[in-house]
Every structure is written in structure tokens, then in C-alpha cells.
Write a sequence for this structure.
């Protein structure tokens, strides 16, 4: 690097974690040359708003948590406000949802933690020691089934987990899916005490909305963040990452006409598999992680009578391909359109992706038939418009002790980044810090802070 040249940081991955990392770098260190690279033709990753019957519909996440565990606004809310979208934040008109089981819609029980009730009858007998040893990790099912029973797990806990992770209670890490409960279980000798403590740790304002969205769609948030970045390069896969003296050398572009790019520091904000591949070319090891694939089917129907709910969840034990349904125009008042009813259904659970092999036409027919059965209708009318969105390898499936493996990787990256003459490298995204837009934004910002600390050290 020539004397006086600006140091360059490259963020690999243009999903919301990578965007948040690049935004944080620009915010804290405007003297740096920050480049964001993504192999897609547009930033945002799984956040994308498209048109259905003349109005917006999400291809991916429709909303994000409004608050954080400390009681303030979530990282997603803060980011939206930073990029001028504070006035565009909207909240659900209704959040009342139900679970479909046994041919009936059951209200989600109030006062629960991811469907886990505080109390049980008969009362739970205290264990001889806290439920978890310090640092111990188990599956959600291993903690809850013996203390609340299969019915609670299968009917309430698993559908809620499935809506977030497309995962199963008996396979998902407690510390990744419910970290507050895992922490409380280290101090409690009953699940009742642990759930009560985890709920108490939530410092939310009574009556405050749990979820938020962006009027006009999530693409507005993506575009607003991207607009703050001076150098966004799209359609460029990163094929290789190697140390070249005190800098990184990236090989980018197609195999037929690759080019190289030098960087003084790198943020890897891509899923676990491509991250592991690039880490291996850098002489480092990634974190093993499986992913679940999902499909989303959006239907614009002629005005149709629906249950007065924001949507419903479907336990895997019910035998439906559909695992969740959102009644969009009932949940979000800003999406209501005269003469239309907008419904979006989710298909695909971890280990059960066979339904996703169907053609779009078959999947549309299946979803229409199942949604009709779930709401007790003979049939749904022919849609005015419809779309199928497929996300292969979309949602991380965190096995127990995933957090420990991530901690080990980050310790290795810190040791590498702080060694004399070594260029810094950090990782960010759902593969490491949890799903959901706020978690990914926080992950990206934290990675940027760690990188700056290494550059300044």
C-alpha cells in the first residue's frame, strides 16, 4: 500500500448483516475505504419486497422485533431510524394468532415463553440442582418435554420454533433458540422458575408492539442502508481469500475472468458453508452448520372471509405441508386493499423438504387446499395473483453447543487478527448469532467494531 493511501475494508456478503457491518464501518471510521461485495444482483439477501396483484409482498421476512432484551428499541429499529425510515416503521393491527390442531383453531396461551407455560398441574417438583450446569447446552425438547409433556412441546413449542427456524424442538440448541431460558436454567431447579425468570428479564414496556415492519416493504430498508455506502459491487462471487503479506488478497468474479482485490481487513457475512470455504483458503476453519430450506406461497384472493387472526401455526404432528399462514391484510393495516385478501403460507421443515420438490403449480394447489381445510372452508377462491418463493438452505439449524463452536472460531480469528503483521478478519450473520433481522444487524455491527479494534490495535 502506498504511503498515505486509505486503508481498505471489504465486507463479503450483502445481506442485512453485511449491510449493517458496512454501515457501522462508515459510521465509525469514515477515513476507511469500505467496499461491500455480493454475488447477487441486488443487496439484501433474503430481504426483498416484490409486487403481487399491484401491491407489495415480501419474499422473505415480513417483520422484525421492535425491542431488545435490555428494554430499548431493537437494532433493526435503530438502523431504520439512522437511515431516515423512522417514520416508516409500522406495527401489526392485530397480533392474535392461533394453532391449528385436531381440526380446531386453538388460541396461543398467554404468558408463555415460546409456547412454554410458566406453571404446570400438578406443580413441578424441584430438582436436586439447577436444571443446567454452567455453560451446558441441550435441545429445547430435552429441557421441556420431561417437565411439560409432549402435548405442550408438539402443539405449541414446536410450531413456534418452526415459524422462526423451520426447526424441531428435539434438535435445536436451547442456548441459541432461547438464550434467556438457558441462562435462567443455570440458576433454577424448576422449569417454572426458569421460565418465570426469563420472562421477567424481558424489559419491554407494557402494551408496546412486539413486531415492526417498514411501510413499503423491507426492500426500502435494504436500499436505504445501501445508499449510505459509497462502493457496493454486485454480481461478484468471492472465490478465494488468502493472506498476502500484511493484507488480504481476494479473488472475485467468474472463473473465466477473475480479478483480485487487496484489503487491509475483511468481514465475512455469508452463510456457514461459503464462509467455511473462504476461511479454509485463509488457513482457518469454519463452523459446521446445517440449514433448512423453506418455501413461501403468496396468494392474492378475491375478498375472502378469514378467521379474525393475524395468522395461524400448524404443528408437524397434524400432517400438513403448510406450517404457518399469515393473513397479511388483517395483520398489517397498511397492506389492506379493497376487494382483495392477501395470504402467505410457509412450507418446509428441517429434515422434511420433500414438499419443496413439487412444481410451483402443484405447491400452489396444495397450499390452497390445505389453507382451506385449516380455516374450515370448503375451498379458497381462485387467486387473482399468486407467487412461490423458494429459499434453499435458508435457516440455520443450531445443534447443542453451537455457541461454543462459534466462540472457538472467534477466539481463533482474534488471535489471528492481533498477531503482528496479520490482517484482521471477522465473521457476522445468522450462522453465528441467531436468526431475525435485529440479531443479524447486531452481529454485523459487532463484527465491524471488532475489526476496527483490531485495525487500531
Amino acid at each position: 500500500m502506498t504511503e498515505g493511501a486509505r486503508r481498505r475494508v471489504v465486507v463479503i456478503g450483502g445481506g442485512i448483516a453485511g449491510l449493517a457491518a458496512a454501515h457501522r464501518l462508515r459510521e465509525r471510521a469514515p477515513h476507511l475505504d469500505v467496499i461491500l461485495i455480493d454475488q447477487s444482483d441486488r443487496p439484501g439477501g433474503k430481504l426483498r419486497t416484490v409486487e403481487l396483484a399491484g401491491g407489495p409482498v415480501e419474499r422473505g421476512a415480513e417483520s422484525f422485533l421492535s425491542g431488545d432484551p435490555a428494554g430499548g428499541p431493537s437494532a433493526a429499529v435503530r438502523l431504520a431510524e439512522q437511515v431516515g425510515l423512522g417514520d416508516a416503521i409500522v406495527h401489526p393491527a392485530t397480533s392474535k394468532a392461533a394453532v391449528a390442531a385436531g381440526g380446531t383453531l386453538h388460541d396461543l396461551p398467554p404468558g408463555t415463553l415460546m409456547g412454554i407455560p410458566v406453571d404446570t398441574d400438578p406443580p413441578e417438583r424441584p430438582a436436586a440442582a439447577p436444571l443446567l450446569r454452567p455453560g451446558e447446552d441441550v435441545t429445547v425438547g430435552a429441557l421441556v418435554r420431561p417437565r411439560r409433556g409432549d402435548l405442550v412441546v408438539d402443539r405449541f413449542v414446536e410450531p413456534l420454533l418452526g415459524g422462526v427456524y423451520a426447526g424441531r424442538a428435539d434438535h435445536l440448541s436451547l442456548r441459541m433458540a432461547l438464550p434467556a431460558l438457558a441462562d435462567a436454567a443455570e440458576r433454577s431447579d424448576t422449569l417454572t422458575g426458569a421460565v418465570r425468570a426469563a420472562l421477567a428479564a424481558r424489559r419491554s414496556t407494557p402494551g408496546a408492539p412486539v413486531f415492526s415492519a417498514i411501510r413499503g416493504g423491507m426492500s426500502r430498508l435494504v436500499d436505504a442502508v445501501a445508499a449510505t455506502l459509497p462502493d457496493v459491487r454486485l454480481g461478484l462471487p468471492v472465490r478465494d481469500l488468502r493472506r498476502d503479506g500484511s493484507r488480504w488478497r481476494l479473488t472475485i468474479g467468474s472463473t473465466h475472468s477473475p480479478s483480485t482485490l487487496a484489503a487491509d481487513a475483511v468481514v465475512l457475512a455469508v452463510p456457514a458453508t461459503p464462509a467455511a470455504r473462504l476461511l479454509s483458503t485463509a488457513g482457518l476453519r469454519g463452523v459446521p452448520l446445517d440449514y433448512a430450506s423453506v418455501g413461501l406461497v403468496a396468494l392474492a384472493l378475491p375478498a375472502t372471509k378469514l378467521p379474525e387472526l393475524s395468522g395461524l401455526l400448524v404443528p408437524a404432528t397434524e400432517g400438513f405441508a403448510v406450517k404457518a399462514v399469515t393473513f397479511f391484510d388483517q395483520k398489517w393495516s397498511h397492506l389492506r386493499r379493497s376487494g382483495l385478501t392477501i395470504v402467505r403460507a410457509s412450507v418446509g421443515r428441517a429434515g422434511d423438504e420433500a414438499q419443496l420438490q413439487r412444481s410451483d403449480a402443484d405447491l400452489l394447489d396444495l397450499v390452497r387446499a390445505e389453507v382451506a381445510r385449516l380455516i374450515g372452508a370448503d375451498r379458497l377462491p381462485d387467486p387473482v395473483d399468486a407467487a412461490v418463493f423458494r429459499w434453499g438452505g435458508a435457516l440455520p439449524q443450531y445443534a447443542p453447543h453451537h455457541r461454543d463452536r462459534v466462540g472457538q472460531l472467534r477466539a481463533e480469528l482474534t488471535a489471528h487478527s492481533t498477531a503482528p503483521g496479520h490482517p484482521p478478519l471477522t465473521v457476522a450473520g445468522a450462522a453465528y448469532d441467531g436468526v431475525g433481522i435485529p440479531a443479524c444487524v447486531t452481529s454485523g455491527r459487532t463484527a465491524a467494531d471488532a475489526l476496527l479494534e483490531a485495525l487500531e490495535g
